[in-house]
């Protein structure tokens, strides 16, 4: 059991260290960008004003309010202190909305779009890969290569193709938004149906691309395992096919789980382009707006979430590996 | 094996579906959170359009959709989530409800007057009759329309107007600060008479009568009782008052806030709106709901208007005529032919007169002469602007009202031919600015003439214009490179004089225009500011121009004013501190007539400006709309 503790303890420690570095970088890097965030927001609020000195005063007010005139380490500790309380500050570009407010809306859209899409893509991809390895035939020769081809189309390309074919030309699926342009959010079947229909194109544009990559990986692993000695030996022993498959599957899955966890970790970055093309108000578009608006608090919060998710996903994978793969645990116990 | 893993896959998928499928929240508040359900089978078929059959409850939020034949859909104004409904807020991000400018949007809050750029006149809204200056030109008297009422039934009184001023100035809102420069006080003489006391100059008369008057069609009038309520709940704290959401607002306008979230903003008509009285519009506005879906960018909005999901769009659509000529869509603009819309602003090139070389008139003028403006208009604006042959360059917009105020015949000898490369070269040669080392670039005082022309990246029509300017520079031996930074960097640069050549748009049509536009082009009063958003970014100084600019606000003789504006145009054409690159609509106005029709059209006799049915006098359009195919 001691080895266990050592294994997990070390892992967690490393990740905490990485987290500290990541938080500091998260904070500092955006603020190194050239340009001044105050100009953009001040520019918006002074439109329609005629007196030049008054405009200057507005500009100065903002500079003070955003605290960007203070030295950077002061800003960092203030931000850290607030962040620990869950207060990520006020957004510059969408002043006076708070960052938490903006993110809470956006995160939900991204998670609901990405999570099922990635998982389904992963599942279908693995199934396809396993089937192609075992059954061969049309799966291996036609379907897998087709999906492999599709998976190399970049996400925005796929999104636009689907949008054009199904949304514009055939007109059977909607082209933008989270729900119908005339629908009002309500607890009705009509609204839910509208959301589901609007969900299709962004969803499938991500799934279709994910399948190919997963399939080819799974196929290789499955073929490798199927040729392993223990499989041949089990067959000679007369063990049922179904049991053998269970062993094979379990071994072939390992790298795939790593892949899945990493995808889920980076998911929070949002399929930026898919969101923009479909006007889906998720984290990706928020991140883009934060970058172009030089909105430090929003940017830091977004990247912090992504960082934490990635680190968390990695950590969980490492921990799960210890559970799934006895070989890993065993080597750590020496 | 196949079966086994397939079953596992299906089970996992169903488990996910179960965990993700949640009811859609319907809180009483304005922000809605939406959960997406998960689809396991084939994509659903075509979405049915639901007509709102459901009963509406007291706050009407149980209806699941807006009836298409009672809703007017907008695009191109709102690009993000609404922050608040507060006129004091610096960033409401609420384009439909809060837009206080020369042509204020009066859907929710109303102003005293409405500006009509076509006639260059104000029409009374909350006011009655014209505003009157006193003999000594120190104050303006405005009478209120006795029929004007707030949404809670109480009448709009002069006290409300006076308190609006107090409210803004007490809490130092941007509008308040602006007003204090030109207005000393606003007082209620009696219940229905308001007096605007202008800030006085040294001569005892109003410092700038034009700018004092400019607040009449601009300022939203707020209800005193409601303002006091907000003050109380914010404990009179300035920051709290300026960021109060005010979604329980009391206003006098025809619409009230209905719902807003990250997908759209909706307003619902107030059927008790006072404006249905005979002294105002005589009826209610036709659409019951005004909705604005939030699109991510112009292309998304364009797709939507092509599908008929948007009725009125304030977006620039290149080659907009192709939509009805080639695609046979029921889309139209204010005019059937080029330039398709009323052009009220001029994106203008500014030369930084502090930079070596650009302080020399021949160099600036040569660049101005060499640019191919026709190409800018045809490529960047896709023809949606009159050319400088149609309407020669001056400080005026191409509208009839503006052109009457300038003497084009007198200016004819200062104009140059389009893309006059030879003339530009000759000008430079005669000034002794030549290429002495044979590298194709001229030198001035030993230094190569090399400049950066900047505007924000992503503003494609401006980017295209600057590329054309750079090409012109190349033709005459001046190296101009384009530079397209992020918008915030651009704002930083042009407001602090940190540029060689940049672009900015003049203000549109208003009470204080064309005066304000001339200030924008030529006034040196901005030259000492640390941060300058107002104009003349290149810090040009011309004493005669400054002198004329001081005289204009106090001059009421149109013949004299015409003389002044002509002289200012002449200075601009001779010295070229800035060069208008094209005429451009202040607001784009593209409508889809598949559901609604009756939009303003040129020469339809109504003189309603094409301002997206909401701005200034353009809101009259809402009262003229009819459904296609009759009611």
Molecular structure report:
- The complex is a heterodimer of chains A (334) and B (631).
- With 334 residues, chain A is an all-alpha fold.
- The mean pLDDT of chain A is 80.
- Chain B has 631 residues and is of the alpha+beta class.
- Chain B folds into 3 domains: 217 residues, 3-Layer(aba) Sandwich (D-Maltodextrin-Binding Protein, domain 2), CATH 3.40.190.10; 115 residues, Dipeptide-binding Protein, domain 1, CATH 3.90.76; 243 residues, Dipeptide-binding Protein, Domain 3 (Dipeptide-binding Protein, domain 3).
- Chain B is 27% helix and 16% strand.
- Chain B contains 18 helices and 24 strands.
- The N and C termini of chain B lie far apart (64 Å).
- Classes of the chains: A mainly alpha (334), B alpha+beta (631).
- At the A-B interface, helix 2, helix 3, helix 5, helix 7 and helix 8 of A face helix 1, helix 3, helix 7 and helix 15 of B.
Q: Whole-number radius of gyration of chain A?
A: 25 Å
Which structural class is indicated by helix and strand composition of chain A? mainly alpha
CATH class division of the largest domain in chain B: Alpha Beta
Count of helical regions of chain A: 14
Determine the CATH superfamily of the largest domain in chain B: Dipeptide-binding Protein, Domain 3
Total of DSSP H or I helical runs spanning 4+ residues of chain B: 18
Shape of chain A: flat
Low-confidence stretches of chain B: 15-62
Mean model confidence by pLDDT of chain B? 85
Which range best describes the helical content of chain B: under 10%, 10-25%, 25-40%, 40-55%, 55-70% or over 70%? 25-40%
Largest sheet data of chain A: none
Distance between the termini of chain A: 12 Å
> Major sheet of chain B, described briefly?
7 strands, mixed
Poorly predicted runs of chain A: none
What fraction of the residues of chain A are assigned to beta strands by DSSP? under 5%
- Give the averaged pLDDT of chain A, no decimals: 80
Order of strands, main sheet of chain B, comes to 8-9-10-1-11-22-12
Work out the oligomeric state of the chains in this entry: heterodimer
Strand content of chain B: 15-25%
Order of helices and strands of chain A: HHHHHHHHHHHHHH
The gyration radius over C-alpha positions of chain B equals 27 Å
């Amino acid at each position: 059991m001691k080895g266990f503790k050592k294994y997990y303890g070390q892992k967690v420690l490393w990740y905490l260290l990485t987290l500290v570095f990541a938080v500091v970088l998260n904070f500092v890097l955006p603020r190194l960008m050239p340009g001044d965030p105050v100009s953009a927001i001040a520019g918006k609020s002074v439109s329609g004003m005629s007196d030049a000195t008054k405009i200057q005063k507005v500009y100065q007010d903002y500079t003070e309010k955003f605290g960007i005139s203070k030295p950077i380490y002061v800003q960092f500790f203030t931000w850290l202190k607030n962040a620990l309380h869950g207060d990520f500050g006020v957004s510059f570009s969408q002043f006076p909305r708070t960052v938490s407010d903006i993110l809470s809306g956006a995160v939900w859209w991204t998670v609901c779009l990405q999570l099922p899409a990635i998982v389904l893509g992963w599942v279908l991809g693995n199934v396809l890969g396993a089937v192609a390895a075992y059954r061969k035939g049309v799966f291996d020769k036609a379907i897998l290569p087709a999906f492999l081809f599709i998976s190399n189309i970049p996400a925005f390309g796929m999104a636009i193709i689907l949008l054009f074919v199904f949304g514009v030309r055939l007109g059977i699926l909607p082209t933008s938004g989270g729900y119908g342009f005339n629908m009002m959010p309500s607890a009705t079947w009509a609204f839910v149906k509208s959301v589901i229909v609007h969900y299709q194109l962004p969803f499938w544009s991500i799934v279709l691309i994910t399948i190919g990559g997963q399939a080819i990986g799974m196929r290789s692993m499955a073929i490798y395992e199927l040729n392993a000695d223990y499989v041949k030996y089990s067959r000679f022993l007369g063990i049922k096919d179904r049991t053998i498959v269970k062993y094979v599957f379990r071994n072939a899955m390992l790298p795939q789980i790593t892949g899945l966890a990493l995808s889920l970790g980076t998911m929070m970055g949002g399929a930026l382009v898919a969101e923009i093309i479909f006007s889906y108000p998720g984290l990706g578009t928020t991140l883009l707006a934060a970058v172009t608006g030089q909105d430090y608090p929003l940017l830091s919060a977004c990247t912090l979430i992504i960082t934490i998710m990635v680190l968390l996903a990695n950590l969980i994978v490492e921990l799960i590996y210890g559970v799934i793969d006895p070989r890993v645990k065993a080597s750590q116990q020496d | 094996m196949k079966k086994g893993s397939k079953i596992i896959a299906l089970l996992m998928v169903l488990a996910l579906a179960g965990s993700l499928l949640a009811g859609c929240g319907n809180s009483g508040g304005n922000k809605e959170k939406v959960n997406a359900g998960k689809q396991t089978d084939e994509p659903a078929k075509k979405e049915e359009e639901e007509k709102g059959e459901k009963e509406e409850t007291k706050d009407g939020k149980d209806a699941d959709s807006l009836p298409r034949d009672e809703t007017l859909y907008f695009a191109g104004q709102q690009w993000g989530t609404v922050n608040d409904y507060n006129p004091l807020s610096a960033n409401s991000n609420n384009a439909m409800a809060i837009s206080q400018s020369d042509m204020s949007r009066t859907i929710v809050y109303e102003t005293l007057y409405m500006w009509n750029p076509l006639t260059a006149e104000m029409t009374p809204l909350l006011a009655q009759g014209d505003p009157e200056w006193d003999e000594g030109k120190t104050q303006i008297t405005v009478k209120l329309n006795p029929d004007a009422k707030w949404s809670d039934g109480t009448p709009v009184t002069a006290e409300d107007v006076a308190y609006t001023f107090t409210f803004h100035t007490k809490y130092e809102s941007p509008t308040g600060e602006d007003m204090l420069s030109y207005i000393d006080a606003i007082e209620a003489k009696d219940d229905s008479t308001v007096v605007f006391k202008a800030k006085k100059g040294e001569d005892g008369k109003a410092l700038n009568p034009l700018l004092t008057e400019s607040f009449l069609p601009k300022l939203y009038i707020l209800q005193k009782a409601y303002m006091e309520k907000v003050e109380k709940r914010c404990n009179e704290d300035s920051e709290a008052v300026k960021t109060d959401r005010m979604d329980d607002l009391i206003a006098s306008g025809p619409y009230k806030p209905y719902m807003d979230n990250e997908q759209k903003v909706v307003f619902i008509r107030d059927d008790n709106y006072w404006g249905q009285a005979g002294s105002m519009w005589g009826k209610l506005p036709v659409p019951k709901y005004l909705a604005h879906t939030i699109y991510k960018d112009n292309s998304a909005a364009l797709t939507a208007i092509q599908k008929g999901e948007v009725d009125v769009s304030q977006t620039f659509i290149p080659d907009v005529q192709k939509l009805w000529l080639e695609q046979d869509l029921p889309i139209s603009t204010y005019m059937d032919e080029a330039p398709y819309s009323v052009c009220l602003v001029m994106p203008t090139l500014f030369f930084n007169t502090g930079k070596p070389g650009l302080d020399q008139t021949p160099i600036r003028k040569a660049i101005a002469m060499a640019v191919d403006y026709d190409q800018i208009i045809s490529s960047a604006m896709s023809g949606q602007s009159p050319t400088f042959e149609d309407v020669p360059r001056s400080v005026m917009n191409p509208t009839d009202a503006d052109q009457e105020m300038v003497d084009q015949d007198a200016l004819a000898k200062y104009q140059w031919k389009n893309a006059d490369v030879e003339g530009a070269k000759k000008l430079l040669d005669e000034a002794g600015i030549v290429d002495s080392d044979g590298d194709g670039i001229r030198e001035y005082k030993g230094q190569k003439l090399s400049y950066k022309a900047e505007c924000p990246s992503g503003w494609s029509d401006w980017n295209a214009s600057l590329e054309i300017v750079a090409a012109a520079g190349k033709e005459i031996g001046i190296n101009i490179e384009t530079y397209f930074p992020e918008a915030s960097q651009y704002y930083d640069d042009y407001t602090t004089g940190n540029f060689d050549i940049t672009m900015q748009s003049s203000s549109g049509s208003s009470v204080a225009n064309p005066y304000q536009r001339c200030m924008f082009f030529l006034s040196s009063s901005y030259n000492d500011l640390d941060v300058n958003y107002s104009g003349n970014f290149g810090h040009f100084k011309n004493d005669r121009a400054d002198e004329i600019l001081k005289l204009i606000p106090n001059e009421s003789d149109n013949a004299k004013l015409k003389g002044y504006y002509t002289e200012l145009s002449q200075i601009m054409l001779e010295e070229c501190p800035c060069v208008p690159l094209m005429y451009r609509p202040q607001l784009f106005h593209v409508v889809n007539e598949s559901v609604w029709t009756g939009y303003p059209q040129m020469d339809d006799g109504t003189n309603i400006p094409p301002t997206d049915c909401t701005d200034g006098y353009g809101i009259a359009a809402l009262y003229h709309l009819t459904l296609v195919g009759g009611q």
